[in-house]
Each structure stands twice: as C-alpha cells, then as structure tokens.
Design goal:
Blueprint (H helix, E strand, L loop, with lengths): L1 E2 L6 E2 L23 H4 L15 H4 L4 H18 L19 H32 L11 H27 L8 H38 L5 H11 L2 H15 L4 H24 L9 H39 L1
Antiparallel strand pairs: 1-2
Helix pairs in contact: 5-6, 5-7, 5-8, 6-9, 6-10, 7-9, 8-9
Keywords: Membrane, Transmembrane, Transmembrane helix
InterPro entries: Znf_ribbon
Protein name: Putative zinc-ribbon domain-containing protein
C-alpha cells in the first residue's frame, strides 16, 4: 500500500497519482499499514485544491504556462457548441406566374389546336372539291360533321323561305303571324330529324352492301368519310340553296332543283364508294347493289309513312287551334 504524503489517503501499490489530490506517488515506497488506518475516516474529507497535471507542473516559466493555457482554450473551443448566426431571409428572384397566366396559356394552346383542326378540315374539303374520287385520309369526324352542317344549312334555308312566303301573302295581317312562325319552326325541326334519318338509312344500306361484297375493309366512319368526300359538292350546293331562299320566294323552283341535285349527289357518292372500292370482291357487286337498293327503299317507305302521318296531324292541330 502507498500513503499519500499530502492528504494521507491510502492507495494501492500500482497507483502512481493520488486519486484525491493528484500528488505524484511514484517515488513513495510501499509501507505496511495498520488495520486502524484502513478504517474509513469519520471526519469529512478536506477538499483538496485543484492541482495541475504533471505536464503543467513542469512548465515553470510564464511563457510555458501561457502556451499551455492557449492549448487548453483551443481544446475547449473544439468541443464548444457552435454559435448559430441567424441568416437574413432570402427572396426568390425568379418571377412567379399567377393562375390567370396559366389559364391564358392553356386557352392559347387549345385555341391554336382548334385552329389547326379547322385548317386540316378545310384542306380536306378543298381537296374533295378538286378531286372528289381521290382517296384522302382524314379524321373520323370529318364525314358526319359535314353531313350535319349541310342539314342545318338546308333546314335554316327552308325555315326562312317559309317565313318569306307567309309574309308575301300577308299572314300577319290576318293575325296568323304567330301561327305561321310556329308552323315554320315545327316543320324545320321535323325536316332536320327527317334529313338525319334519311341519311342514316342511305348510309346503312350502302354499308351493308359494302360488307356483303367485300367481307372486310373500311369501318363505318371511314366509309362515311369516303362517301362524303365523293359527294362533298353538296356543301357548296347547300350554302347556295340557303342564299337563294333568303333572297325571296320567287326563286322556289331554283331551290327545289338544287335540293334534288343534292339528294342525287348524295346517293352517287356512296354508291361510288360501295362499288368502286379497290378490293377483291368476295361476292358479286350486282347482288350487293340490289341488297342496298331494297334496304333503302323499304326503310324510306316506312319513314315517309310515319313522318307524313305525324306531320299531317301536327299541321291540322295547329290550324284548328289558330282558327278556334
């Protein structure tokens, strides 16, 4: 055992420094210790003064002590928590676009897309007027949109023509202005419905013949595009008929002639599309044409009978209500 000469604490033989006061015990020899000395000291321990480590004791000059203190301060600064300096708020210099700007960009994009579609459709119409029987590709909506536009133009022309006839014979002077307007409007709606059904029957009959003859080929929308491309002069004839009807009732015979020409051209366009296809026929084309003829005739007879009865009843009811 070793006994510290400074504080009197007992240490093990292999301890070089006192654990209480830090005194160097390397030069202290081991001595025999009585059992009374091994008993714990009841008196409170005296707090020793803080001793410098051995390497600091050896530096006796002020310069050496200053260097040691600098090293200690450097070591303490390494383990010290870094001080966080608040940064000023940074603002984004890039411009931000509002929802209104994004909406305007979307509107311009959609507007340019619509213009491009209309230009493509117009080029398709011009090509059909120059070369009706040429095979040109187009979007699936070209055909049926063209047919619907032709029907609307024709029906509006008929509506204004009926109004012109009623005004010519002074229907308003007899108090029949409202009645004539109602009859003209109802007749216009009925004619539009009749025109659509008529064209559906004709296209359906020729497409059935097309599938009977070839067994494969174009689908229904492609078939409609080809038929309308061949008969697209009807678009010009429909606009011309509309203008003539607006000019007055004296041009009724000219309007009727143009109307018959439109119907004939419509039949011819789909007939050429059905029989002039550049495919190897599976069945004879003559029988396919006969099938289309009977389908169209039978369907039109049924349609005319239904429309005649309904239109006659509607007209008579309006007349009786006007004079009652």
């Amino acid at each position: 055992m070793k006994k510290c000469p400074n504080c009197g604490a007992l240490m093990e033989a292999d301890v070089n420094f006192c654990t209480k006061c830090g005194t160097d015990l390397r030069n202290i020899n081991n001595t025999q210790v009585n059992e009374s000395e091994l008993k714990p000291n009841v008196n409170p321990p005296i707090t020793p003064e803080k001793k410098e480590p051995e390497h600091m004791k050896q530096s006796t000059t002020p310069n050496d002590r200053q260097s040691v203190s600098e090293q200690t301060s450097q070591t303490e600064s390494q383990f010290a928590q870094p001080r966080i300096t608040p940064q000023p708020p940074q603002y984004n210099s890039q411009p931000t676009y509002s929802n209104q700007g994004q909406t305007n960009n979307q509107y311009q994009t959609s507007n340019s897309a619509r213009k491009e579609k209309f230009n493509n459709y117009w080029q398709w119409c011009v090509a059909s007027w120059k070369r009706p029987f040429s095979e040109l590709t187009g979007e699936s909506w070209y055909g049926w949109v063209t047919i619907l536009a032709e029907d609307i133009v024709l029906v509006l022309g008929i509506y204004f023509g009926m109004k012109a006839v009623a005004n010519r014979y002074g229907a308003s002077t007899f108090g029949l202005g409202d009645t004539v307007s109602g009859i003209a409007f109802n007749s216009t709606i009925a004619l539009l419905f009749f025109s659509v059904l008529f064209e559906v029957i004709v296209i359906g009959g020729y497409y059935a013949a097309y599938r009977f003859i070839y067994g494969h080929g174009k689908n229904l929308l492609e078939f409609v595009n080809s038929g309308v491309h061949c008969s697209n002069l009807n678009l010009i004839l429909s606009v011309l008929t509309f203008i003539i009807m607006l000019l007055g009732s004296n041009n009724g015979s000219m309007s009727a002639l143009l109307f018959l020409l439109i119907i004939a051209n419509f039949f011819m366009g789909f007939q050429v599309t059905t029989l002039g296809e550049n495919l190897k026929p599976v069945r004879d084309k003559m029988y396919g044409y006969i099938i289309s003829f009977f389908i169209i005739i039978i369907a039109l007879i049924i349609l005319f009978s239904l429309i005649y009865s309904s239109a006659y009843d509607s007209l008579m009811n309006q007349l009786f209500s006007a004079f009652s």
